[in-house]
Each structure stands twice: as structure tokens, then as C-alpha cells.
Amino acid sequence: MAHKYVYLFKEGNETMRELLGGKGANLAGMVNMGMPVPQGFTVSTEACTRYYDDGKVIAQEILDQIDAALAVTEEINEKKFGDPQNPLLVSVRSGARASMPGMMDTVLNLGLNDEVAAGMIAANPDPAFERFVYDSYRRFIQMFSDVVIGLSKHDFEHVIDKFKEEKGAKQDIDLSADDMKTLTAKFKALYKEQTGEDFPSDPKVQLIEAVKAVFRSWDNPRANVYRRMNEIPYSWGTAVNVQPMVYGNLNNNSGTGVAFTRDPATGKKALFGEYLINAQGEDVVAGVRTPSPIAQLEQDMPEVYAQFVEIANRLENHYKDMQDMEFTIENKKLYMLQTRNGKRTAAAALKIAVALVEEGMIDEDTAVLRVEPQQLDALLHPQFDSKALKAAKPIGSALPASPGAATGRVVFDAADAKAWAANGEKVILVRLETSPDDIEGMEAAQGILTVRGGMTSHAAVVARGMGTCCVSGCGDITMHAAEKYFTLGGKDYKEGDYISLDGSTGKIYGEAIPTVEATISGDFEKFMGWADAKRTLKVRTNADNPRDTIQAVKFGAEGIGLCRTEHMFFEGDRIKSIRKMIIAKDAEARKAALEELLPYQQGDFTAMYEALEGRPMTVRYLDPPLHEFVPTKKNEIEELAGELGVSYEELAAKIESLHESNPMMGHRGCRLAVTFPEIAEMQTTAVINAALAVNAAHPDYNIVPEIMIPLVGEVKELKFVKDIVVKTADALIAASGTDLHYKVGTMIEIPRAAVTADQIATEAEFFSFGTNDLTQMTFGFSRDDAGKFLDAYYEAKIFENDPFARLDQTGVGALVKMAAEKGKATRPDIKLGICGEHGGDPTSVKFCHSIGLDYVSCSPFRVPIARLAAAQAAIAGAK
Amino acid sequence: MAHKYVYLFKEGNETMRELLGGKGANLAGMVNMGMPVPQGFTVSTEACTRYYDDGKVIAQEILDQIDAALAVTEEINEKKFGDPQNPLLVSVRSGARASMPGMMDTVLNLGLNDEVAAGMIAANPDPAFERFVYDSYRRFIQMFSDVVIGLSKHDFEHVIDKFKEEKGAKQDIDLSADDMKTLTAKFKALYKEQTGEDFPSDPKVQLIEAVKAVFRSWDNPRANVYRRMNEIPYSWGTAVNVQPMVYGNLNNNSGTGVAFTRDPATGKKALFGEYLINAQGEDVVAGVRTPSPIAQLEQDMPEVYAQFVEIANRLENHYKDMQDMEFTIENKKLYMLQTRNGKRTAAAALKIAVALVEEGMIDEDTAVLRVEPQQLDALLHPQFDSKALKAAKPIGSALPASPGAATGRVVFDAADAKAWAANGEKVILVRLETSPDDIEGMEAAQGILTVRGGMTSHAAVVARGMGTCCVSGCGDITMHAAEKYFTLGGKDYKEGDYISLDGSTGKIYGEAIPTVEATISGDFEKFMGWADAKRTLKVRTNADNPRDTIQAVKFGAEGIGLCRTEHMFFEGDRIKSIRKMIIAKDAEARKAALEELLPYQQGDFTAMYEALEGRPMTVRYLDPPLHEFVPTKKNEIEELAGELGVSYEELAAKIESLHESNPMMGHRGCRLAVTFPEIAEMQTTAVINAALAVNAAHPDYNIVPEIMIPLVGEVKELKFVKDIVVKTADALIAASGTDLHYKVGTMIEIPRAAVTADQIATEAEFFSFGTNDLTQMTFGFSRDDAGKFLDAYYEAKIFENDPFARLDQTGVGALVKMAAEKGKATRPDIKLGICGEHGGDPTSVKFCHSIGLDYVSCSPFRVPIARLAAAQAAIAGAK
């Protein structure tokens, strides 16, 4: 038997989303429920995939099945395709597995030609109807020309405009039936002029071309971008729904509308929506006329309203979720054109999930699965006012480095940011790139915009920690910091000008856009409680200071998974001491400089242990190459030479000697501790002394320091550094006269560490997967440089998403899994976590759960997201 | 029962090298064969390992076993340790599994103290004997103080010199017995002065301290360096041999010598060696007196000579290899002190191996195993005259980038090198670093010395291809190229000064040292024939031009495993065309520039196919980041801008835009072909057209081009580029009207490629492991930067050798093995090779054989080495 590619609505059901797409499956579902749906058929997603596999051709067997389905559709609807006496007109719409609103193409009124139009008018010789027929016809020609053939919409709009001018008509409604007929003829002429061919009059040809066009639209650039943003695989393909047309614009007993069973903005339980009398769907969307609230329908057509309410309730009860429905009324008869689980704001998602549980419609597990983890971001950060945002046009875009929305006046340095903010101004700090010197200015700013730097640049990491909106790496900006303006998209933005940033999308706006503050409602706690009850994966945070730590704990962090000690070395005198250490000529001088750093570092750890109130903390030892701590500009070097009391030449030579061809793979991580063991000694002293002090003050905390050696690739390397740690720590503990347990573990961030994890686990008491670096080295490309070619990779569909944002499960993930298994084989009780950026990405969190990690660690504001993703993984895993 | 740590010589045998070390095992062997050996005992290598495991302490059970063995030794030799009447004196010598001549420590005459010395003299009251006793005693104190305690030898020498001055004695022999006694007292006083303690008079204390010292010497810096150079694992440890002393310096009926059963320089079959009457071993080594040839012994002591000849023959027949023996004659009685397989030159190794087969002593397989593959280097490259080399002192050292020895006059640029060479001068080209412009000068030079660049720098790669000696990366040099001199070790070397380079060791000499030309004897062909008959692994070469190709084929290369196409882009107008391509603003301009390159590239491939005469060639597509093709200096950019007809600003901006943070992991390899498919099109056209042309001219060649896509990390990436290749190639082949098969494969050089090799093999018809880059990315360190910390890693014994020279089997090798297995699982007939530097390293070649690769590819002059290593692996594998 031939494979089935085409399904009548009545042959499908709502569980067949993969095959029929969401729209097709739900249309089938409504038909099965006996609801008034114009019955047509769905060409399956498999047909789409086959279309591409066959080289963009629809196979004959599929064409045959479309023919057969069309014949049955004609029978059911008692109309005939192309029959002037009783014509069937159809809409042809895309419908993928996941909703991709507006991304793909639609053709309405398909089946019209001169004969059909004439036949329709002959059967109903009313001038208003005649106008309606030719209006529909000219719209069809325009839509088909645009969507199927790729002609420019504007050329058609231009014909209309010119014609209206000739006629002295201001609006479309000023045009008569005859005018519409003339326009139809003009459109056909334009079509012929541009294509060299007559507009196809055979409805079957129109249909097949429209189906192909929908298939093609799966691969259009905006669909590809949308899929990448929403993680919809290219391989899914789209289905095509062919449905008989009904007309809400037939007369004043007709209309069309959309409605939700609950308020999609707030989640409030009440029918919510709007409709327009005597209109088609596009009129509602176009916004030319103002629709009435759905309640008005009760006044206008009480019976239709009652029927609609009943259907809406049945649908919500059936799908057990808030429904988003499209309907049309034709001559007082209600038709349902679509239902789907409605998109909703984060606040509504929470409220609806909790309400559905309280109403007994779903259980808590289902509720937990109903909220997209990523959505929680919107609850934790300010967002743009949605209406104001609609009116705004971005002037550029870059990396969405830290989520949230911000609006404020441009300033170009940290001191100004601080000063202006102190005067009550909201400011956006715009910098080439940020450095640790900018911290206070970053804190004072609403948002941060940088010209250089990726998702793990200083600006990005610090902003995420603070929860401040940040857009990074906008290479399109030409910076004139000295003159206090920057240029973007051909326009200058001066100090004091308003701009707005969306850190969740990376968009930049050249104006003020009102923002709405983040609000966490009571439902949040209840909902997250359900999630926490289910999850087995622990969630820690990446934090380097008490402020971020306290924030993360508020968000439910169960400890610190990554404390990057180098971030502690930048403030005030510390940077001077570390620079002294770097230029030290021998171990003695190095030790002296480290002695200066010790009290700072110990103080930091003490404060963080206090903030954690007994929760665990993993401290990563010094990681970055030392050149990151020294200046490169001549005047800065001169100044520093003065401060440090060395000659400019000597200092410049030292700094030059720190230069590396590939610093990512250079003298950093534990390699620093191997060459300069004094560093590891100092850091151990700081960690252990801090833990001893805080344990003494709070005996119930029972702090067990976790010391993490970065960039290990070989067990002997870890052992070498661990020996220094143990020797230093044990001496301090012995001297203290108290008992303190501590653990020494390692980052797994180098491929060789993953491959030899069984050996490394003989020394490491825990592994933390540093998937940022592991991704770079496994793929062999540097995050800083990949921008040059990643776009080409997306275009060629070599990559469907950014491996730095979403863990690459096939390659990097395989290494993580291998290392986890090898580690456990050597040391069954080894603790396994992840502390790369991926620790806050829901899909990656689910992967971490599936391979049995103990915890993920992410930036403070991603902690709730990770908690929810972990819960969903546990629930899905249990099923 | 307690573990046995100490073996009497008569308890061991020559198969127990691992436990007793080479010296101990062979002493035991000679005892078993009834030869005259002073019988003592060996403290095993396990005792050494345990000594380190126990924290540098000799366990009591080992001390007890030493005591027991000493008691038996006293019995056998009928002497007693510390007994003035009949004292036993012993030597304490190291002896590792592998011979490490001069690397570890020895103490002679141990057991002497005041009473013993007095007792010996009382028993034999002869002034000459008395002098001998005190000379031995003072030597013992000096050696013990140096070796065991670590006092400075020079302080003792100073005491002697001062004493001789006082006495008016010119030479040691001018000192009387009394003088020696006085010196002994002075030495003991010096010992006490420096240590605060009396010199230990208890022979047992002396013995244990000496054993510990030998154990410690396993870890001394020179032993560590030697081990790393010779790949001797640190974990092996050394044994300690305690042997009764015999005295060649007792009188004129005594003597000592060393002899080989065949000439170690030429391999000629004849007893070869030298001896000294009335002398101890150190006298022979010290070179104060000139020894007589061994034949003289036949005149001096015919019976002893006959006995020695008989023993030498028995030993050679027993060990079936040339023996290197030490002997001492005490009062006309012969004692054997050591035998071992003798070190020999490459020429001798070949001659001996072939001769032993012809004499029926060993079979061909054994002969093949007898020559170290690395040794063949010496047959293929000029070497220094060994005597002249002994007298020379290096002025510096750097990376041994291309083997062989070279001597010549310093020149500082390629044009001078060419001009001077044309005048018959031998020159050494000294450069900061070389660039493709220098090719002709490099060809003209005897050797190349660079200040910058590693083992894979331009200079290194090109020099290895040419077989020219090269020492690279000598950062100690201060270059004054404009003034035509360089400074090294505080001394200036001007243009025209003689220097010499040893490309096998990396040493640099500030003088002319005569060299001996490479000579390949008839034995070479016969021997390599035996090797080839055994090996299953094919050996290809890395070559980018016909000259290297022809050389490699002469050395037995079976094809080209890696043709780096970028090397073809540097000469003359080509570099201009590639620069035009780089600055092209669109695909059209890029195509036009590539059109210019096409004839060059096609011509190169044609010439190489001709040179290969039907052997296969793997062509790697453009790999390096584009910035490698453009200048960075302002004046060069200005000049280029003029040539290309663009503004300086535009060109500078373009070049700036090519800058990358980590170019190793940047926009290179197949990423170039993804962003600029035109490059792959041009290269495919060149390869296919060349193959078509050469096949047409030589139908018997049946060329099957192998096209290799570099830096692949994901199968879709390979498929994308392969599609371009196939489309271009198929069109050309169809147009040619002939048939041509070709293969498309990939480098596996990115960890992700290894991890996903099963997927990649769906598209790749062959894998070539690029272990240079794979090592960098698997370890996460860049070769160019690793110099900053690798020394510390060697010192800390984290690494025992350079992973770029020797394939890291644990990590990188595991990935190679995994990829090979995954590749074969998907495509059982996939062809597997390796083309990294490791392809010419014997140990790595053996690994490649063991995991079932089909071929290795290496630089032309390493082809014979790889052939031999592959044969040895096959023979070892068959056993």
C-alpha cells in the first residue's frame, strides 16, 4: 500500500501533531468533536520532507492523494473546485508541529478565476456581493503573485494607489464593484507583464503551486531565524492545510474574530478576545478598523455567542489548557477555523498553570511542564511595555548578553554613569568593551551596550551576575568615545540621547521605550515549590561576590558552583598587587606580592561563606592568562611602571613577553599553579582560613571547602597542584586545632580531561564541566573568532543553533557523558556538576539531568530557570 | 614470605633486566656462564621504586636483605667488610633497565677507613702498595663526599692543587705514599669542616648511604633530561650493583680496558678496544694517559688475551649481538666487570645486523629489530666528525627542527645566501623567522637558524622537506639583521663568521666543525628490503612540490599523504593573486582572483602527479587563516596597496579585520570553503584537470585523486564542501568524456571530529589524522605558547616527553583509536592514515600500526625511519 501523505480533517486527530502540524491536528480534533469546521484536508509534514528530499518536487503519488482528498472535500462541502455554478474556494495555510506565527505563507480565496467569479455573481446578483467577489479575486491574485511567484507586493499596491488617484477614491471602500473588477484585470495584466505568462486560471494548478509555495516557505530566511531562536529543528518540515473558505465579510450578519479562554496577559479566567462585523481575518490583523470586544457578540448575535462560549469551554476542558481560537461567522452561522494552546505572558503562564491545578483540571506535574523555563526571565527582569515596543523600530542588534529591557540616556564612561545616576538619571553605559574598572558604572546603569566582546566577555558575565540588561559585541557601532557620541545605522547618538536595549533579543532602539518592572507574584513561590519537589538535579550559582551570592540564594541557589577568583583581583589596590606578582623576578618577590593579596582574598571568601549560610561553595583557582591583568597602552604602561617602581622598558618587555599566539590555549589555568606554586599556596591559605573563621563563628554551617583546579588535562598535573593544596591546607588546619574537611576537584574543560577522566578521578573528588572552554576546544573554534563564519554556518544549516548557548549533545555532550561515566567508574561517589554557560540553558539542563549529573551552576538570574528545567527533566524522565 | 629486593649475582640471570637493570642482569649472566666476575649482589629496581614510594627511605626489610647478601658476598670472596686483616672493598654502581651512560652515580673503593687502610699496608708493606692504598682512600673520600653528600669536587681538587704546590709536585704521580696519606687526612678534615661531622668510618654506613645516593641520582636533572630524550620512563627506577673491587692499578701485571666484539663505528668484525697497564677505569676515561689498542694485550699477557678473546666470542655468541665489555686484570688474573650490547653508529648497526644474519646467528626479523629507526637519520643527513665535535662547545641550543649537521658562514638574508653559495661558499642562513620569500636562500644554505618559530614553523617544515639541517626558535639570540650580526651568549657573530648547527640535537656552535657526508651503503637496501617485507603499514610522505616528492619516492614513499596546497600560493605572482582574493569585496572579484591562481595550482598538481608516476596523492584544501598571506608592517601594506590598486586605509582595515584572538581556532580550514565556496571550486578544478591530463598522457597511472577537506568538526560541514567538490568534479569529468574516479575524505584533527567519526564517515571516504592540531586541541594548548610552561611540566614530571613529537597515546591516541573504530563501523573499507608530525616518529608509528591504520605520512627524510618502525611493529605484533 502506498504511504499516506494526505489526511482529510475527519481522518486525523489532535494527537497527530508531528504528521499534521499543530493547526491540522487541532482542526481534525474539532471535527471529531462535532464542531462546526469547514472540512478540508492536510498535506502532511512527511510530504514536505519528501518534497525537499526529492529536490523540491512533489511526487506523483502525493499529487494523486491531494486529488483524491480534494474530491472528498468537494463531496462533503457539496461544492466543486472550479465550478462556476457552485464553486469551492479554499485557503492554503502552513501548519508546523510547533507554532511559528507569521513565519510561513498563506494563500486565501484560491479557486477563483474569471468564470468562477462570473458564476458566483450570476447566482447572487447583488452589487455588494459582486464587489465582494472581485475584491476577493484581486486579493487572491495579489497574494498568489506574492507568495507563490515572488512578485513584489508593492507593485500591486502601486496599481491600487494609482487607480484610486484616478478615481479620486480615498479608501478601498470608496471603490465600487466595477472598480474592483477593473483592478482584477489590471492585476492580471501586471502578472503577465512581470512573468510573461497568463495568471493561472486552473484551480488545480493554483492549488499545487500554493502547496509548493508553503513547502518552500519552510526554508525562507525569517523561518530559519525563527527556528534557530526557538530551537525548532529544520528536519520537522511543515504541513499544509487546505480548507474551504467561509466569509466573515459577506454581510452584516457575518464577522470574524479571535478569542482566548483566559486572558493571555494576566491569566485571568474569562473569555477574552475581539471580533469585527463584516470582515475577514486580515482586516482584524491590519488594524484599519477597531474590533469590538468579544462580549459585544453577545449583544449582536446572542445565539452565536452562546454557541461560541459552549465550544470554547469544551475546547479548554478537552485540551486542559487555555485556548486561542479563530472563528468566522457567515450569515449568522459560526465556523471554527483554528484552536491552539494560547501563547501567554510569563505571569499568565504561571497563573493559568496554578489555576488549572486548583480547578482540578491538571495535576502539579502537568502544571510544572506548562511553563517554558526561559519565560521566567520575564518575571525576573524589567520588560518593555509591549504596546510601546510594537511602535519602536530597532536601529541595530547584537548579542543578547544579559536579559531584560532597559531604557536610559547614553553615557560613555563609568564615572559619568555613576554621577548621572546619582542625579536620578537613568543611563545606558556604552563602551567599546568593559573592564573591571567599570564595575561601579555598570552597577549604576540600567543597561550596558558594548562594541566588542561575546557572550562570555567581561560585560556579559558581570551584567548577568548583576541581573542588568546587556547587549554586547555590536560591531556595527563606530565609537567616538572621546567626542562623546557613537554612530549606528548612519545616525549619531550623543551623550544624553535616549536609547533602549533588549538584552533578551539583542535589539537596540534609538529612543526611550517605557519598561515594566519585574514582579514576582505569589503563584511563583507555589509553582516553584512544585517544581523543586520534583527535581533531583541541584541548582547552584556562579558568583564571585557576596552581592550576587545573596541574590542567587533568594532565587533558590543551593550553593556556589563556580566562584571565579580572578574577578576578585581587579578592585583598587588588588590589581596593583597582582601586577606586582606578575612582574616579580623570582618566587620571593612573587610571594611578597601574594602576601598583599591574601587578606583581600580571604576577606572575600569569608564574606561569601557568611552569605551562603552553610551552603557549599566551589572555588576555582586563578584561571586567565596573566596578560589580562596588565595594560597594553603606552601611557598606561608608563603610569604603571611609575607605580611599581620599574623602568618603562623593563615593564614593557615583561608585558610583551606575556603575549601569546593563542591565549585561550596558553599559559593559564592550572598551568599557572604549576609554574608559580605560590599562587596556589596563597589561594589555599585564603580559602581554608576563611572557612575556619566562619565555621568558628557559626558551628552549624559545617563548611566543607571545595577547591577546584582549572584547565587540567592530565592527572599528574592535577596531582601536582593538589599536593600543594593539601600540604598548605593540612598545615593550616593542624595549626588551628580544629577539624575541617575539604575537597579538591577539577574542571573538566579540556578534551583530554574528558578522555582520561578515569585517571583524573583518582585524584579529583569532584568534576565540574566547564562547557564553555570544552565547547571551544572540542569544536576547535574560539568564541571570539567564530563570529566570522558562524552566520555562514547557520545559512548553510551546518549548525542550527549556537553551540555556546545550547550544549552540543552530539559532540561536546558525548565527551561530558564519557567523562561522567569514567569518573564514576573510578570513584562511584564522585560529585558531578556543570558550570559553563549551558548550566542556565533549559535544554542543556535536561541533558545534564539525563546523564546523571548532580548539579548545574548558572548565573544568579538563571537559577529559577534551571530549577524549572531540572524539574521538567525529572518529570519527563519519570514518564 | 617477604618480597625479594636483593639478588646475589649468582641468583639472577640475563633475562632479569627489569628487576636487576642491564648491568646487574648481565653480571648475573656472566656468573652463570662461569666467567671470572667478582661476585657481589644487586639491589633491585623495585627497591628503588619503593625507596621513592616510601618518601626516600630504604625500608628495614631491604636493609636486612642487603645485610644478608653482603654476608654471602664476604663468604664467596673470602674477605670481610671492615676487617683490617682481610678487607672487602666494593664498588657501588647504578644500573638501569636501559643503559644511561654517565647519567647516574658510582662510588668506588667503598669499605675503606683508617683501620682497613693500615691493615692492608701491614699485610703488604711495599711503598708502592701503600701509596696505592692511600690514593684509593683519598679518592674514595672525594667520591663519597661528592656523590653521597653533595660536597663540591672542586674544593677537594683545590686541596690537592694547593698541596702539590707546597710540595713542588707537578703531577699526582709526583706525590709519595706519605703525601697521599696526608692528603687523606686533609680530605677528612675538609669533610668535617663542611658537614660538621666526621667522615663515616663504618663500612656498612658507607654502603647504605651510597645505595641511597645511587637511588637519588635516578632523579637528578641530567638523568631526567636523558630519559626524556631517550624515552625511558621515570617509573622504571635504577638497580644498584655492589661488587667487590679488583685493582687494575695494583702493579704492572695489572690493567684495565674496554673492548667491543666488532667495530662500533663501522661494524667490522674484529675485536676492537683499548687498555691501560697499571690503571683503573677512571684513568682510561680521564684521558691523561693514552691507552694501547687491545691487540697490545696479546703481546703483554698472551694468556690473559687468549682468555679474553674466548670470553668475548662466547658472549657475542650468547647474546647474538655485538658486545661492549669492561675488564680488569689484577696480577695477571682477568676479571669481567660488565658486558652489554654495544652502542654503535647507524652504519655499524646496519652492517652488524646484516652480518649476523649472514653468519646465521640471527634471522632477518631479529635483524630488523636491531636497528633503532631513529638512527637512520644519521645515514640520510651529514653528521659532524665525531672527534671534532668532542672538542667543540655549544654556544646555545634551540629546537632540533630538521636533522643533520651543517657548518658554514653566517648570512642574514636569502639573496646573500644564494649569492654566496653561487661563489662556492657554504653558508648558514640566520633569520628571525623564514617566509616563503626565503625559499631559494634556504635551498642554497647548508643549514638554517631561526630566532622564532617552533617545530612546525615555516622554516622547520620546509627544511625537513628539503632534508636541510635546521635549528629553530632560538629566543636567546638578539638579532641585528640590518647591521648584519647577531648576539648569542654575550658574543657577536657577524656576517661571514663560521657557525655550525646540529639539527638533530638543536645545538649551535660558534665555529666551523667538519662534517661527514651522508652515505647509504649497500647494506641499507638489503636491510630495508627485509623491513618492507614485514611491514603492513604503508608509508607516504608529506610533500608540496615535485622536488620533495622525487626525494621521498627515492626513500621509498608509496605516495603523498599530505600535500599542503597553501604552500603553493607563496611564490612570485601567486601571492599577489591570493591577496587579491582575500581583499575581494564579493564572490565575483574573488572568483576573478582565483581564476589567476588556477593555472599555477593545476600546473603544480600536474607536475606532482608526474613525479609520483601513479602513486596516490592526498591533496588538502586551503587550510591556514587568511591573515597568513598578508603583510602586517605599515610599509609593506603601503606597497601592497599600490600593487593592488586600493587605498592604504582600505587595505589596512581589511587586514585588521582578519585579526583573530586565537587564530589556531579561527576562520581557517574548511571554514574558508564554507564562507568562500569559490576556493573549493578552484582547487577541485585544478586537481581534477591535472589528473585528467596526466592520466591521458600515462593511461597506466590510473590516478585516483584524493581530495581532503581540513578541520572538519561536523558531518554537515563536510557534506557542504563535498557537495561543491562533487558538483565541480563531476562536471569536469563529464566534459572530458573520460572516466575518472576520485575520493573525498577529511582530516580528523578536531576533537569533535573524532567523537563523531561515525557520522563523518557517512560522507568521508578516508580519514587522515592531523595529529598536530588534534594534539593542540585535545591538550588545550597551543604549540606556539606551550614553551612558556612545558619546561616546568618536564621538571615536575607531569610530562615525560613532548606530546607534539611523540603521540600521546593515552589522550590523543585514545581519540584516534575511537575515531578509527567509529569510522570503520560506518564504512568498513574506509582508508585511515596519519599525516601529523607523529607520522615520522617511531613510537607513534608503532601505535598507528597497533590500531590498524593503513598508512602513515611523514616528511621525505623520515620515510625510511617510518618504514623501519612499521616493520618492527609488524614483527613485534606477530610475536
Total beta strands of chain A: 33
Number of helices of chain A: 35
Structural class by SSE content of chain A: alpha/beta
* Share of helical residues of chain A: 40-55%
Give the strand content of chain A. Answer: 15-25%
* Mean pLDDT rating of chain A: 92
- Terminal residue distance of chain A: 34 Å
The chain pair with the largest interface is:
A-B, 48 and 48 residues
Main sheet makeup of chain A: 8 strands, mixed
Oligomer: homodimer
Topology, please?
2 copies of one chain form a homodimer.
Chain A (H helix, E strand, L loop, with lengths): L5 E3 L8 H16 L8 E3 L1 H9 L6 H18 L2 E2 L5 E2 L1 E7 L9 E5 L3 H10 L3 H23 L3 H15 L9 H19 L7 H15 L3 H10 L7 E7 L10 E8 L6 E9 L3 H6 L5 E2 L1 H6 L1 H18 L3 E8 L2 E9 L4 H13 L5 H6 L7 H4 L2 E2 L1 H6 L2 E4 L1 E4 L2 E7 L2 H9 L4 E5 L7 H6 L2 E4 L7 H9 L2 E4 L5 E3 L4 E4 L2 E4 L3 E5 L4 E3 L5 E2 L5 H13 L3 E5 L3 H9 L5 E5 L7 H12 L3 H26 L4 E4 L13 H11 L3 H10 L12 H6 L1 H21 L8 E4 L5 H22 L6 E6 L2 H5 L1 H4 L5 E4 L1 H9 L7 H9 L16 H15 L4 E4 L7 H9 L4 E4 L4 H16 L1
Parallel strand pairs in A: 3-4, 16-17, 17-18, 18-19, 26-27, 26-33, 27-28, 28-29, 29-30, 30-31, 31-32, 32-33
Antiparallel strand pairs in A: 1-2, 2-7, 5-6, 5-7, 8-9, 8-11, 9-10, 11-12, 13-25, 14-24, 15-19, 16-23, 20-21, 21-22, 23-24
Helix pairs in contact in A: 5-7, 5-8, 6-7, 13-20, 20-35, 21-23, 22-23, 23-27, 24-25, 27-28, 34-35
